[in-house]
Amino acid sequence: MMSSAAIADPRAPHTAPRKKGANLEKWGWIYMRASGVLLVVLIFGHLFVNLMVGDGIHGIDFAFVAGKFASPFWQWWDVLMLWLALIHGANGMRTIVNDYVTHAGTRRTLVWALWIAAGFLILLGTLVVFTFDPCLGLSDDSVAWLQELCA
Predict the structure, then answer these.
(1) How many CB atoms lie within 10 A of CB 137?
(2) Fold of the domain spanning 25-150
(3) pLDDT tens-digit readout, 37-94
(4) 19 to 16, 22, 24, 111, 127: CA distances (angstroms)
(5) In Å, what is the CA distance from 147 to each residue of 71, 99, 150, 151?
(6) Transmembrane ranges (predicted)?
(7) Alpha carbon of 71 to those of 77, 98, 127: distances in Å?
(8) Counting beta carbons within 10 angstroms of the beta carbon of residue 27, is it exposed (0 to 12), middle (13 to 18) or buried (19 or more)?
(9) Calpha distance 49→45 (Å, rounded)
(10) Separation CA 78–CA 84 (nearest Å)
(11) 91-118 pLDDT, tens per residue?
């Protein structure tokens, strides 16, 4: 016995009304692609400078980080990398939550928790980068190289 239900033509126009306003899913999709490309450049630049230039991994210590954070270029490089990576990761996790969590209230709670955590980490990381002071708390017992750096 044949069923009378028919499958709609896949090329037929979709008849559901389109929602008004911004298409956040489309902009999230575009952000993931653009931030992914930028992150590849930022991360490989970060790794190259930290691991290949100078003494390589053996040269990374407090003085190396203090020297990098003394430069506005590297401050902005690291902050851009931090912001893009955290928003990229939170958006990816949001997509996973939307795909696998079926209960609307739980999904909404998890997505809010993701964005709050990402926002907190962005705020904290940005404050660390821009307020980093290697000279804070220097005393006579401090190392000579650190005193010279702060002179």
Answers:
(1) 7
(2) 3 helical TM bundles of succinate and fumarate reductases (1.20.1300)
(3) 999 999 999 999 888 887 888 888 888 888 888 899 999 999 999 999 999 999 999 9
(4) 9, 9, 11, 21, 39
(5) 18, 54, 5, 6
(6) 30-53, 73-90, 110-132
(7) 10, 40, 15
(8) exposed
(9) 6
(10) 10
(11) 999 999 999 999 999 999 999 999 999 9
Could you tell me the two tokens for 11?
A: 């090329």
Rg of the chain in Å (alpha carbons): 24
Phi–psi pair at 84, nearest 5 degrees: -60, -45
Question: What are the helix (H) ranges across 5-103?
Answer: 24-51, 62-69, 72-100
Side-chain-facing half-sphere of 146: CA atoms under 13 Å: 16
- At 17, the amino acid letter reads P
Phi-psi region at 25: left, alpha or beta (left = phi > 0; alpha = psi -120 to 50): alpha
**Hey, what amino acid is at 59?**
G
* Phi, psi (rounded to 5 degrees) for 97: -60, -45
Sketch the domain layout of the chain as residue ranges.
25-150
Structure tokens given for 65: 């980080």
Interatomic CA distance for residues 72 and 116, integer angstroms: 27
DSSP 140: T
